[in-house]
Amino acid sequence: MSFLNKEICDGDNPDLTEERRTATFDTDRMAQVIYGSEKFAARRRQITKSISRIPALQDTKPLAFMTREEKITEACRELDVLSDHWEQLIYVNDEEEALHLHREVIGMEGHPFALHETMFIPTLVSQASDEQQEKWLGRARKREIIGCYAQTELGHGSNLRKLETTATYSPSTQEFILHTPTITALKWWPGALGKSSNYAIVMADLVIKNKSYGPHPFIVQLRDEKTHQPLPGITVGDIGPKMAFNGADNGFLGFDHFRIPRGNLLMRHNRVEPDGSYLKPPHAKIGYSSMVKVRSRMAMDQGLFMAQALVIAVRYSAVRRQGFLEDKSQEVKVLDYQTQQHRLFPSIARVYAFIFCGLETIQLYEKLILDVNKNGDTSGMADLHSLTSGLKSVVTHFTGQGIEQARMACGGHGYSMASYISEIYGVAVAGCTYEGENMVMLLQCARALVKAVELVEEGHPEKLSPMMAYLTKPSVTVDLTVGPEAYVKIFQLIAKKQAFKATEQLHKFMVAGDSRDVAWNKSAVELTKASRLHTRLYILKTFIRRVESITDISVKAALTDLLNLHLNYELLDVASYALADGIMSSTQMDFIKNQLYSSLEKIRPNAVSLMDSFQFSDLQLRSVLGRRDGHVYQNLFEWAKSSPLNQSEVLPSVTQYLKPMMEKSKL
Ligand SMILES: CCCCCCCCCCCCCCCCCCCCC/C=C/C(=O)SCCNC(=O)CCNC(=O)[C@H](O)C(C)(C)COP(=O)(O)OP(=O)(O)OC[C@H]1O[C@@H](n2cnc3c(N)ncnc32)[C@H](O)[C@@H]1OP(=O)(O)O
Ligand SMILES: Cc1cc2nc3c(=O)[nH]c(=O)nc-3n(C[C@H](O)[C@H](O)[C@H](O)COP(=O)(O)OP(=O)(O)OC[C@H]3O[C@@H](n4cnc5c(N)ncnc54)[C@H](O)[C@@H]3O)c2cc1C
């Protein structure tokens, strides 16, 4: 069956064209599933097309050959051009469209607006009172001011209760005095803080009459709006180059008794009255909502990072020929090797699974903020916190692994920056650290799991949230041939056993006399394992739910193959738990392996189109190996020729050092 596949173009590498002709589904239809709606998938294409008509937004020089300063300058130039076309390109204030625009034009190396849009504005939306929004939100949205989110300090990132920056209230002047008492209290890491932002949301310990109330968000002007010079009392700068993200100026910030008006404490949920009396928020952790916002986006964003690496690796694997199978007259596409498929296809399945989770958690966050802001209803906070804590940790970990496998799948050329995979990897794995270090967040998820197990043990299963309901499921014998539900049942048993085992271990240490904190630490590895299994179960169930809801028959069939691969791969990956606890037999293991191998064969003809469906433009991919037209070799040669080292035949370093050295050696 051949579909009217928009990706097919006769000028392309014939190997890629052949792949596209074998697809059993329409990539536009698949894009609707990936991006959540027909409307948004179409808008994305429209925006991409409009961008391609703006000459100033087409990449000129490869980013790999730019210095850090050049990258930042280039990102600012592109932002300026974007700003001029903003209203023609996207619906103003549509976050998803803005994100697409950014990914397409500026790519992933970071830029001065990354934190403005992802944390500064969302914090104003969720934490500022109506009056404060009136004052700052409009200006921020019009990009009259640029803001960032300054929370992490040199000495503390994970343990927010020990942040040292203070905001001491002075009732006589009705001001807060921001101060950095020690070197470790310097804000350190915030994106776009160093050189670009002139405002920041600063998380500081609120102190009133010598009493500490813990971290609270303040809006703080850092630089003069006309000259962009730091205001007196403020020390601010860039923290230097990083593993990736070098188009962003992550920064440091110190305050020397810097005064801000009382009205700069964001007061939607808590207040400090002129006399210093404090009205507490409806939930103690409501001030952490911006972190939950970003975490709720991360399954989607990380899924898209891994998708980019896989588009590159899969397309390249379809044009790279090396070695023989039966026919010795022509070398095979490396994508035909089972090992190559095993390296790439499970990650393709994870990409789809992560994105489906992201579509869900982004909506859950939006609903939560509506509930909190309109009705003061904070009842959804704990569940969303534990879900997104586990999800960000699991997704970032597997994304890092998947991207690294994609690099290796491209052989030597994967290691060249021409592939762009190293940049994607560097950016993606930052997600293992930012928005909460992965172990720390897995342990947050474990808190909710342990509480749920304790509820079951205390005889209150009716109090469990729906996500935890599997903890009450009895052990059963499962026939795997029945379909996805059987896999879910086995996964539930594995996850349940681990949650109970970890909790039992925690309790055992406590009974032996350890405090809960010490017992917790002694059980931490087991607890993180329980969190991972719990989260992977959620991912698996979301994948099944989503595929079941698809109406297009051919899209559903292609995704069912991918889902089957995911189910078998995931179960095999956690088989040691199942075998140890007698949940699965070795015969069932053999069945799963065979299913997995036959899934690889089924997916093979659709592999390129499953990745084409993400509809990333060449501008966004920035990869010589991943070019849509598949003309890899001649473009690798052009790319190498444009290296600054090749702009002269004899380098000054040769004249200055190597030549004299060789001359000396002759003597
Ligand atoms: C021209 C035009 C431009 C236009 C622009 C267009 C738009 C485009 C946008 C651009 C996009 C660019 C592309 C994006 C690329 C990605 C960019 C990425 C940027 C990355 C930015 C990174 C930012 C950061 O990292 S910010 C700092 C993050 N820091 C952390 O995450 C710290 C982690 N630590 C914590 O969160 C806490 O310390 C925690 C939770 C570990 C512990 O907190 P605690 O206060 O100590 O609490 P604890 O005692 O442990 O728990 C008590 C209790 O409270 C519960 N709890 C904790 N947190 C929460 C919560 N948030 N919600 C609910 N409940 C919570 C906890 O579970 C406990 O409960 P119980 O067990 O019931 O007691
Ligand atoms: C690219 C990037 C962008 C960032 N952007 C921002 C930003 O915009 N704004 C901002 O405020 N911050 C930002 N950060 C900072 C980031 O949020 C923190 O680095 C992160 O929260 C981790 O905290 P940490 O550095 O203190 O790690 P640490 O907590 O020091 O982690 C070190 C080790 O200690 C372990 N550990 C720590 N506590 C525990 C515990 N309780 N139990 C078990 N193990 C533990 C961790 O697992 C880890 O292995 C950014 C960081 C990066 C890398």
From TrEMBL:
Record keywords: ATP-binding, FAD, Fatty acid metabolism, Flavoprotein, Lipid metabolism, Nucleotide-binding, Oxidoreductase, Peroxisome
Cellular component terms (Gene Ontology): peroxisome
Active site location: E435
Domain of life per record: Eukaryota
MF-aspect GO terms: acyl-CoA oxidase activity; ATP binding; FAD binding; fatty acid binding
InterPro entries: ACOX_C_alpha1, Acyl-CoA_ox_N, Acyl-CoA_Oxase/DH_mid-dom_sf, Acyl-CoA_oxidase, Acyl-CoA_oxidase_C, AcylCo_DH-like_C, AcylCoA_DH/ox_N_sf, AcylCoA_DH/oxidase_NM_dom_sf
Tagged with keyword Lipid metabolism: yes
Subcellular location: Peroxisome
SUPFAM superfamilies per record: Acyl-CoA dehydrogenase C-terminal domain-like, Acyl-CoA dehydrogenase NM domain-like
Domain named Acyl-coenzyme A oxidase N-terminal: residues: 26-146
GO biological process, one term: lipid homeostasis
Protein's UniProt name: Acyl-coenzyme A oxidase
